[in-house]
Amino acid sequence: MNSITDSLYNLRLLDDLARKETRIHRMHPMVKLLVTAAYLFTVISFGRYEIIGLLPLILYPVVIFILAELPVWPILKRVLLVEPLIIGIGILNPLFDHQAVTLGGLEISEGWITFLSIFLKCGLTVTAGLLLIATTGMDRLAAAFRMLGVPRLFVLQLLLTYRYISVLAGEVARILRAYSLRSPGQKGIHRNAWGPLTGQLILRTFERAQRVYQAMCLRGFSGEYNTGGNKRTGTGDMAFLVIWILFFAAAGVYNIPMLIGSFLMGEYR
Amino acid sequence: MSHHITEVKDLHYIYPDGHRAVNGISFTIHHGESVGIIGANGAGKSTLLMLLMGIIFPCVGEVRVGEVLMTKKTLPLIRHKMGMVFQDPDDQLFMTSVYDDVAFGPRNCKLDEKEVEKRVLQALEMVGILHLKDRAPFKLSGGEKRAAAIASVLSMQPDILVMDEPTAALDPKSRRRIMKLLQGFEHTKIITSHDLDMVFELCKRTIVIKNGEIAADGPTSEILVNEELMDACGLEIPLALQSCPVCRKREK
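Predict the joint structure of the above. Result:
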């Protein structure tokens, strides 16, 4: 019961974080969107046996975490929520792909390597996505999508879905509270009540959504979600974009850990 | 502020299920007037407000705001002149911060961001919650939410304020604060409420609705003290005018 109210508050955490005023937060939303897209592209472009090459890409989330002064644990917790899904997808890899490789004297199946690579890629991409929202906020992100020419309807859909999640969750919390107060000593919801409760929920959310929509119309809403002035991109923004894209390209083309390793070894020799 | 008359002529509205919610209502509200619309539950107050705001259109009759007939085409114009504060502020506040919420209307008017900022700060200042501008609306208290909802309408700079139960679910101090705030506004005010004491203090004129029709329309000081009329319409005279609960005597 409490958990849904808690998650309602947790849901707004990213919005709260997005209101911070750090250098990263002040950056142009489109730049952040492009950098994130480039990052995602780089991460997923790695082959399934490459793990070492992926490691330098951890630098990006680390830098953003530090510069944007974001709390690490609450965001990582959200990443972990997705990981079981990935474990479900990847756990069979070691069974199907059991060609053995030797890694530092240890013999393991290649399946484990692909599994680890999927796990890592998922972690990195989801973190990057969450960081984008936590440093930009949904509203400004939507503005960035519009600037990139994404059709109005899609952007509106995204924004309103995001908004209505909390409306829906709020109604769920209220219905569950009313139910649990009148069913002492019962765990969960009896299956007889599932139907009426869901029906209730749909009707209530419809009504609520309609009132919210009316309130929007009365304040001049006509289909375009205006999220405020779009500032221009500055030199700092461009530098941020160029540096990261160069870095991603370098990480994609060269195996940086290997290069550093051989460089150090060469030095020592 | 230009001279504005809100004119309602022979308004009828029948819901799709056949329920006659509004049944031939006519009245004229002049510029700067503050009018209370009262009635028992289901009397047709909310439907009347929705008709006034053009959320629904009447089956018969017309609404005119400042000489402009309300049609689908004139709606944007009319909604610039009239602002409505909803009963549940949560319906009205849906952006991530109070500032963005109050800025929602002006931004829809395509004002430039400087003007938007000016209006938002002005509206927040008027309702006394400038310090809350960066807070998330869902973290505010009931009274603060109500003030934010009012600010979000004020930022559109309407001439007419329509309010549905502005004092509902507020603690006594917050209620008093909102009432003081409303008292200070020069706008034309149309307020529906069951809080008859508030209507008694804020509105010079009262319209009583019963079964979708006007049962009485006149000075508040005459209507709200009319025990017989109030009783017939499912209402009571304001608490302040009732017998003192301790000595059982009515204060004169």
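Chain A has a mean pLDDT of 83.
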